[in-house]
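Throughout our pipeline, every protein is held as a single compact record rather than as scattered files. Nothing more is needed to write down the fold, since each code stands for a local backbone conformation. For reference, a complete record is included directly beneath this paragraph.
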Amino acid sequence: MPAGTLEALAIRPAGSSIPRRVDIALALAGTGLAGDRHADPHSPRQLLLAGAGIYDSLALAPHALRENLLVDLDTSLLTSGTVLQVGPEVTLRLMFQCEACGQLDLQRPGLAARVRTHRGMLARVLSGGTVRPGDAIEDLGRRMPAWSDDWRERVVQVLDAVPDGMAVAYRDLARLAGIQSSYCRAFPRLLAKLGPVYAGRAVAASAAPSLPRWAGTGLFI
């Protein structure tokens, strides 16, 4: 089903917070965009799609939302588990909506509150290839399990996938759930609320290795 068009592409190199517009990008299956700081096989947020409409309505500066793919779609209407085809080769698995965090307010006070649910949709690369501005975007339907927009629910999703007899380190749990490492401070309280079934599935990195550590192998397959 036709969905839209890819209007622009950007890469954020490692060590840089400033996106760099490019005319072509190589999407790597299971990893992300080549040369981008968020390319990571163990992350649900390999790339960000943002809608051109929010740029127009809020008169945003180019790359204000730090997206990789600027599309002529309302990303707030996209649903987790949907697969998009971009151009003839690349397919993307939509994961969850990107939170309009306080970092946006550094560019313009109050911007996060105005953007709300229109920051964009995070995705993983299913099949790789090259993408270019002008590529058609097709909606292939919901083909994959959905992930929650709520970070707490995503943490539970990851914990449910931890193999028996293994534990995940806090920093890896944050990475796999697609949240900042600063959230590790909230894990002990969250695990306590979840109860004893979950208590031993996640441990601080400094904890004695009583159980083998799981790094997320197979989580996104």
